[in-house]
Amino acid sequence: MKTLLAALTLLLTCPSAAQLSGQNPVTHPPGIVDTIFVSGNAKTKDYVILNEMTLKPGMQATPEAIEFDRNRIYSLGLFTHVDIFYDSVGTIRYLFVDVRERWYLVPFPIFGFRDGDPKRAFYGAGLLHNNLGGRNQKLYASLTLGYDPSASLSFIDPLLDRTERLYGAASVSFTRARNKSERESALTGEYNEEHFGISATLGKRLSLYQTAGLMLAYRSVSVPNYSPGRTVSTDGNDKFIAATLMYTYDSRDLFEYASQGILTALSVTQNGFAAHSICYTRYAADVRGYLPLLPRTTLAARLFGSFVTGGEVPTYGHAYFGYGDRIRGYYHDVTEGEQQVLASTELRFSLLPPRTIAVTGLPLPEEFTIWRFGVSLALFADAGTTWYRTETIGVRDFMAGTGGGIHFLLPYSFVARLEYAWNNSHATEWILGLRGAI
After folding, report:
1. Superfamily of the domain at 2-100
2. Fold assignment, 179-433
3. What is the 3-state secondary structure (H, E, C) of the chain?
4. What is the predicted pLDDT for the residue at 5?
5. Which of 129, 293, 325, 329 could form a disulfide with 421 if both were Cys (CB 3.0 to 4.6 A apart)?
């Protein structure tokens, strides 16, 4: 009875997020945790938050562990504000987790320039439900027109089964994409590819940091006029089943801009199973590490590689720099091959550590009035190359660039980068990026 009364007293006296600063207050020196209370999650289930925390009842809390868990919860992408503090009421020593939820059902316009080229404008609309049933389920639909028109629908459930800790996903998509291969365009002219795909994923969360899964997909790729290399099938239509085995270890604190932890993402994809058509295997590894050095200073590094074995790889299955992955110093240069490697490193100094502010005086719902900002300075170096299996590579084949810039951590998990780079061909360039490089 005393414990129950103490808990009720706790819930009545705990401060709200409005009373808390954005810098994670600690009322008492951290110690052993007897219980954890969650507040402010009007829609989100408690277990969604608790599953991301390293601290559990019976464990010793430290300021470092509390800050790590605060960033992990924020990385769920469900909250505009997260606070955790340690206190006690009577004999109960507790962690109090207070959150403010984002707006979950978001219709939004889509506009941009494909690959950063103003001549490749696309536009459309999308609808995102970021937290179906309060279970962190994601439902996403979009339609774009203009350059590379597309339509997609996807659903992700990070915890299909709480007992077995299973997760699942499904998607369907269609894209009419301009050929990416500058090599093929120079030989045969530009052309469009029509991509249609359906996929389903089932996986298991092995621990707080580890997941493993299997994705099965049906893919169809069509080109208007067959030419060797555009497709494997001589009629210009590749239709095949793909299977991907995936393993991920992710101990990063803040996913969009980590300051500590490790990410290791490994995958093996078998594209096609029939010897007379598409039948090749792609192996991919993405390893990233974040090491805190001096106060506010982090050394970040990434090593990425993608390799193939087996039969013919069509043009649309090649590896590219200049689209998703880029080498700073050659940011807009497109290179192509069957295989690729990339090494990157950044030395970051947090000029303004991430902090939460409440914005007043704007005609916005409450969910849009709590903003999180941060500013960092960075020095970087990148190096990478692409090649075909028939080629050998050496140090001179690598494109390399170095430079520095300023990074902005923006509300709703966006990262903006303004950087200046120079490459090993003595050319320089300005870069504006809208996501983290590492």
Report:
1. membrane protein fhac (3.10.20.310)
2. Porin (2.40.160)
3. CHHHHHHHHHHHHCCCCCCCCCCCCCCCCCCECCEEEEECCCCCCHHHHHCCCCCCCCCECCHHHHHHHHHHHHCCCCEEEEEEEEEEECCEEEEEEEEEECCCEEEEEEEEEHHHCCCCEEEEEEEEEEEECCCCEEEEEEEEEECCCEEEEEEEEEEEECCCCEEEEEEEEEEEEECCCHHHHHHHCCCEEEEEEEEEEEEEECCCCEEEEEEEEEEEEECCCCCECCECCCCCEEEEEEEEEEEEEECCCCCCCCCCEEEEEEEEEEECCCCCCCCEEEEEEEEEEEEECCCCEEEEEEEEEEEEEECCCCHHHCEEECCCCCCCCCCCCCEEECEEEEEEEEEEEEEEEEEEEECCCCCCCHHHCEEEEEEEEEEEEEEEEEECCCCCCCHHHCEEEEEEEEEEEEHHHEEEEEEEEEECCCCEEEEEECCCCC
4. 40
5. 329
